[in-house]
Structures are given as structure tokens and as C-alpha cells.
């Protein structure tokens, strides 16, 4: 495994995109307390900058600004909202390199991967710009001659958006695009680890012409729970859209029940990746290698288990761990020490229960960890039931289709599942049987703006393609005495 090495850190050409204040009511503001916290580059542990340490009082100001701007924004035509979103989309593409640099600085992922995320994130703004003009209602045939039944769609109101660190650009755009297209105003609370991507998007939204108060961004580290509680209990917030762990999602749901808010939850996953013995092993092997941190459990049929494990280990041994700004880097750092500890705990538990390391398993300096392939996995290992969120591919052996479907579904979450097979009948049967919200059949990547993104069971609810409806209320109008 190649050793990580220091690389010259890049900075955005447009320095005004690297904002170090929060964004409330069209202004770049500090916390009322004056407190700040440092955001660190996970590759170097150097400070990128400081942002405001905001609390409930600051969040109330952001909610107030969103509420006061709501009526005007909601009353705009869908065409007007479409046009602003399209301008924003164009600006994101015009500034994609700088946005990718900011993303790599705070998240650590390789620059090419960050650039891919920025482009992918922009597609949601474009998609929902178009969806803004398609929020059709209905005319329901009335059983009475002198009546008309109309159903129309109206924006929910102020939306609280809470996002994680792993996709700091695309998680924001997927939610913001739908909310703004629907006519909602928003208060965004990005991850404390990755606030700069959200703030850069807010800067571009200003340039696109969004009115003040429509988009607000609150930053916090120590006061995260306090800010979350304000968003979920403030009666002026009508909806919460959250991506994160199932545990935190349950807490936010509980808090939101006091005001019966509308909710969209994209929660934890534990994705199975199944390789059947009739699969195109090379294709499955490539997909597994490219997305080795996405599937949590890799099931390989006995007849090809040894071959697949060997070839995957060979490929992974060629990966290069390093700074995201090094063009040869394939895998950047984990986000922080907590993430390193979880990966280490999962690997140590697996080894203690009989697993073997084919490649990797070594922590480098700082937040770097070598991509790891484990064999000899069993269902009593922690990694089987917990999402690792790290560069570990644990390989499980299976014999029969019924057996692997049962293993794959033996989870309280169901976000995504993947499998490879050349048998069309098997493909349909397994796709139907997997208890997940998204299935990749001979495909290792399933997320795109055109398709619904979301899970079942404790992976949450709400879908992105149909997500604009998640930000709209239905109103039934009965015209009588006509």
C-alpha cells in the first residue's frame, strides 16, 4: 500500500467563495455570542478557517428571516423560481473547480471525486428547476352537477435542512433544489466538519438573484443539539429534511412531533453487495473496487469466492492513500479521529472472531487508513450489523440464492442493495426480494437526479425524484352553488 505524502494544498481562485460567516437574511453574519470554531483539513489537520458558533438564538433569527420572506417567495410564479434556479445552476458549473477545491479542503476526498460531486450536485438544481413548472394539481369529477372539486399544491413553508459531511455539496443541492422549487424558504444546518461548501453555494445563490431570507445557513459545532432542537420544535418551521444516522433521525422525529412537522428522512444504510457465480466477475470486481466504501457487506457465491477475493485484493493493493490534491490519490483521509476509531473497532472485532486481512488494515498518520479487504466473515461480527463508513470490504461466502437473500435482508435498515448476475430470471427475483429502497442490478452506482433516492425500514422515508411533493401541501377546494 502506498504511503501518503504531503501535497501542496490548492485554494479557490475566487476567494469570496470561501466564506467564514454564516448567512442570515441576505447578510454574512457572526454569531450573537461572537464565538467561532475552527474547521480542519482532515488530510493535514491544518485550519482551513473559522465559522460562527451559532446557538438557538441565532437559529431563531434565521427562522424569522425565512418566515418573513416566505409569502413573497411562495407567491412568485413557478417560471420565476425556475429561472433563478437555472441561473444558480449555471453559476455552480461556472465555479465548479473552486467548489471542488473547497470540498476537498474540508472533506478530504480526491479532487477529481470532489469535482464529480459538484457536477452531480448541480444536476439536482437543474432537475428541480424544471420540476418547479410541473407541480400540477387535479380536477376531480364531482358527484354533484353544481360543484367542482379542485386539488392544488402549495409550499409547506419554512424548511429546516440538516446535512452530513460525506457529500457536503450534493446533499445540500438535493434538498435545497426541491424546497426552493416548491416555493419554500429554508434554514440550512450543514455538518460542523464541512460548512464551507454550503456557504459557497449560498454566495452563488446571492449572485443568481435569490431574495434575502429565502436561503439561510447556520453554522455550529458545540451547539448542534441546541440548534437541532430549535429547528424541530419552532412552530414556524413546517418541515425537516434530514440526512444522517438512524439514531439521530429518530431523535429529530421525536422532537418534531410536538408541532407535527412534515418530515423527510434519509438515514443509515448497511448495503449488501451480492456476486452470484454466473456474474461477469470482472464487471462486479470493478464496481466493488470503485465503490468499496459504499457496500457494507459483500456476499460472494462459493464457486467464485476465492477468485473474487484474490482479484479484489490485487486491485485494492494498487490504491494510493493520500492528500486529495495529489492527482495520483485514489483514497483520501477519513473525516476525523472518530471515523478512524470506528473502522479500527470493526476490523479488530472481525479478526478476533476469525476473519483474515487480505490487504490493508493499517492506519497511517493522521486520518489516513489503508483500504482493507477481509475474508472469512461471519454474521456475529459487528461490521455485519453496523455501517462502517470507512474503506473496508468484508467478504462473506454463500451457497444458495435463498440463503443470501435472507442474509441481505437481515438488517433493520434498507437503503440500497447491489448484485451481479447474468441470469435475467434471477435478476428479477432478487431485485424483487431485496428489502431496500434502491437496487443496482449489474450496476454499482444508482443515485442520479432523475430517479428516486431513499430507503425503507429504518433507512427513512421521502424520495428525491418525487421530492418536490415532499415540500408541498395538498389543498382540496370544493366550489359549490355553481
UniProtKB/TrEMBL annotation:
Q: What are the entry keywords?
A: Oxidoreductase
Which InterPro entries does this one have?
Answer: Ald_DH/histidinol_DH, Ald_DH_C, Ald_DH_CS_CYS, Ald_DH_CS_GLU, Ald_DH_N, Aldehyde_DH_dom, Aldehyde_DH_Superfamily, Succ_semiAld_DH
> In what residue span(s) does the Aldehyde dehydrogenase domain sit?
28-476
EC annotation from Swiss-Prot or TrEMBL: 1.2.1.16
Swiss-Prot/TrEMBL catalytic activity: succinate semialdehyde + NADP(+) + H2O = succinate + NADPH + 2 H(+); succinate semialdehyde + NAD(+) + H2O = succinate + NADH + 2 H(+)
Q: In which pathway does it act?
A: Amino-acid degradation; 4-aminobutanoate degradation
Asked if the record carries the keyword Oxidoreductase, the reply is yes
Choose any GO biological process term that the UniProt entry carries and state it. Answer: gamma-aminobutyric acid catabolic process
Q: Name one GO molecular function term.
A: succinate-semialdehyde dehydrogenase (NAD+) activity
Q: Where is the active site?
A: 266
An annotated GO cellular component: cytoplasm
| Enzyme category, top tier | oxidoreductase
**Family to which the UniProt record says this protein belongs:** Belongs to the aldehyde dehydrogenase family.
User: Record's PANTHER family?
Assistant: SUCCINATE-SEMIALDEHYDE DEHYDROGENASE, MITOCHONDRIAL (PTHR43353)
What name does the UniProt record give this protein?
Succinate-semialdehyde dehydrogenase
Q: What organism is listed for this UniProt entry?
A: Dentiscutata erythropus
Amino acid at each position: 500500500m502506498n504511503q501518503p505524502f504531503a501535497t501542496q494544498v490548492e485554494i479557490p481562485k475566487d476567494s469570496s467563495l470561501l466564506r467564514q460567516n454564516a448567512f442570515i437574511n441576505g447578510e454574512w453574519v457572526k454569531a450573537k455570542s461572537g464565538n467561532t470554531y475552527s474547521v480542519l483539513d482532515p488530510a493535514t489537520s491544518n485550519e482551513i478557517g473559522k465559522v460562527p458558533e451559532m446557538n438557538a438564538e441565532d437559529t431563531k433569527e434565521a427562522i424569522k428571516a425565512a418566515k418573513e420572506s416566505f409569502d413573497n417567495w411562495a407567491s412568485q410564479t413557478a417560471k420565476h423560481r425556475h429561472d433563478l434556479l437555472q441561473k444558480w445552476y449555471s453559476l455552480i458549473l461556472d465555479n465548479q473547480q473552486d467548489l471542488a477545491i473547497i470540498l476537498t479542503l474540508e472533506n478530504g476526498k480526491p479532487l477529481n471525486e470532489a469535482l464529480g460531486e459538484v457536477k452531480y450536485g448541480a444536476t439536482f438544481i437543474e432537475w428541480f428547476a424544471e420540476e418547479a413548472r410541473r407541480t400540477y394539481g387535479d380536477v376531480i369529477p364531482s358527484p354533484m352537477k353544481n360543484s367542482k372539486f379542485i386539488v392544488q399544491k402549495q409550499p409547506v413553508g419554512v424548511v429546516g435542512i440538516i446535512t452530513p459531511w460525506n457529500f457536503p455539496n450534493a446533499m445540500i443541492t438535493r434538498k435545497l433544489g426541491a424546497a426552493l422549487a416548491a416555493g419554500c424558504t429554508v434554514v440550512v444546518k450543514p455538518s460542523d466538519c464541512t460548512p464551507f461548501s454550503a456557504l459557497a453555494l449560498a454566495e452563488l445563490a446571492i449572485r443568481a438573484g435569490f431574495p434575502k431570507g429565502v436561503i439561510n445557513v447556520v453554522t455550529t459545532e458545540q451547539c448542534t443539539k441546541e440548534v437541532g432542537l430549535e429547528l424541530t420544535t419552532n412552530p414556524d418551521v413546517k418541515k425537516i429534511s434530514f440526512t444522517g444516522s438512524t439514531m439521530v433521525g429518530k431523535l429529530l422525529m421525536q422532537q418534531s412531533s410536538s408541532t407535527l412537522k412534515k418530515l423527510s428522512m434519509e438515514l443509515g444504510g448497511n448495503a449488501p453487495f451480492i456476486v452470484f457465480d454466473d456474474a461477469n466477475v470482472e464487471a462486479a470486481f470493478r464496481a466493488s473496487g470503485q465503490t468499496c466504501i459504499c457496500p457494507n457487506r459483500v456476499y460472494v457465491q462459493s464457486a467464485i469466492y476465492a477468485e473474487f477475493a484474490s482479484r479484489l485484493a490485487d486491485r485494492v493493493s494498487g490504491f494510493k492513500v493520500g492528500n486529495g490534491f495529489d492527482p495520483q490519490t485514489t483514497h483520501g483521509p477519513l473525516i476525523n479521529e472518530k471515523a478512524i476509531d470506528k473502522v479500527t473497532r470493526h476490523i479488530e472485532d472481525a479478526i478476533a472472531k476469525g476473519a483474515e486481512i487480505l490487504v490493508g488494515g493499517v492506519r497511517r498518520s493522521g486520518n489516513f487508513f489503508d483500504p482493507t479487504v477481509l475474508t472469512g466473515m461471519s454474521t456475529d461480527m459487528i461490521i455485519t450489523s453496523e455501517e462502517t463508513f470507512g474503506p473496508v470490504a468484508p467478504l462473506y461466502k454463500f451457497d444458495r440464492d435463498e440463503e443470501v437473500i435472507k442474509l441481505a435482508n437481515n438488517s433493520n435498515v434498507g437503503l440500497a442493495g447491489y448484485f451481479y448476475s447474468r441470469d435475467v430470471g434471477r435478476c428479477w427475483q432478487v431485485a424483487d426480494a431485496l428489502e431496500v429502497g434502491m437496487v443496482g442490478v449489474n450496476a454499482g452506482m444508482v443515485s442520479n437526479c432523475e430517479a428516486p433516492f431513499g430507503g425503507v425500514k429504518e433507512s427513512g422515508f421521502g424520495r428525491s425524484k418525487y421530492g418536490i411533493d415532499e415540500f408541498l401541501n395538498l389543498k382540496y377546494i370544493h366550489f359549490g352553488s355553481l
